[in-house]
Here is the input.
Amino acid sequence: MSRFISSIVVKTRKNHKCFGCRAIIPKGTKLEVITLVEDDIYRIRTCEVCKEFEKLLKAWEFEEFFEGGYPEDERWQEIKRKLEEIV
Ligand SMILES: [Zn+2]
Here is the structure.
């Protein structure tokens, strides 16, 4: 069971991989960093598209969706297109 520690909005100082779709989040991007503790400390960075997607799902569904690395999946591409129109 992971424990939520904090959520802060930062401007990234280097490139990061999105926790969800694994896309590169370029440095200088403003994003929310969520810190969790589960044995170790984890910092979760999510791109704008995934952030919107996450709002549509419960957290466990979001994690499950990306578990097998879905970015190439057609379903994901479709969702991504729709979300990109929003953000
Ligand atoms: Zn993403």
The two ends are 31 Å apart (CA to CA).
